[in-house]
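User: What would this chain look like folded?
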Amino acid sequence: MLRYFTAGESHGEALVAFLSGIPAGLEIDQAFVDRELWRRQQGYGRGGRMKIETDSARILSGVRHGRTIGSPISIEIANKDWKNWQEALPVASGDPAKHKRVASPRPGHADLAGALKYNFPEARYVLERASARESASRVAIGAIAKLFLRELGIGVLSHVITVGGVSLTEVVSWDRISVLHQQEKILLNCADPEAEQRMKDEVDEVLRTGDSLGGVFEVVAHNVPPGLGTYVQWDERLDALLAAAVMSLQAVKAVEIGSGVAAAFAVGSTVHDEIGYAAESGFTSFSRAHNNAGGIEGGTSNGEDIRVRGYLKPISTLRRPLQSVDFSTREPVKAAYERSDVCVVPAAGVAAEAMVALSLARCALEKFGGDSMMETNRNFQGYCQQLKNY
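Assistant: Here's the prediction, encoded as structure tokens.
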């Protein structure tokens, strides 16, 4: 059973992530893990924090001589900004006069709900943990999940579908997404250069007006064999696991698999993917005319690319703040402003890749098992042969 969790605050000393259940013998590519963290920090519309942090994963346990050893993996990501917050957010009691309180809650953020839940007089501690900075931890352990999936021939990448009022209408192939991710400079991670420029123009406009932008990203998992997940229990369905994983990311307000939204307004004959049988290709000789199901039918992968879209609301911290209430006086004021981004859709896509990879790795381990990569690969190859013999 793959298990993971994260710890740490946005302006604390470090973020920490824990991952348990990865088989022994998986080669860990440190450069790959760090590049995943780098990718999360890129994208047009990011804020000043990205100029401070240069994220790198420090692996503390579970890896020796470059390979996993079967024990829990722990990773630390240092916060360089900690030096500016040591007196404001000390672990010990410190000087209360140096505390940087959040005087008024931001609409759309966890500020007020969190303060009410934990009985805080203001929202500083809420902000510190609710911040999307936490997603860096998930990207780090998600990179290890990607390395595991790579051993099975499975790839996971994302691209941007929508920013503001600009959207792609075409289905982007895995090959085009792969080429996109070979670029050394990331603008808005859109496969269509002309659309990407118009997306940039949208970001420029909200930069000018002090507003923020949301959008839609799509995560594609390629070469996933049929049979991951199952229909037999509600909490084992692959689509349910992926929806929960992507929805758990900060600012994601809706999740779609395949053509899920459009399918709700169409007739069945135009939605369901007709089945054919031809010369052997891929895992089986069965083929599909389309992939409206997004690679999942009945809670189970069907051998097509898995496509999951996340719908991201605009960032709730605005340079032109909305109306709020002062925590202390209860008087009307403008919402507090914390240094923030304007558009994070590309970065959210990278974090979603991590969550999709962790979910698929969990399902793969539940199906194929193995305490070592040799055992897992042997079981996987046996299953692939079973599919070919079907």
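The first strand starts at residue 3 and ends at 7. If you want, I can go into more detail on any region.
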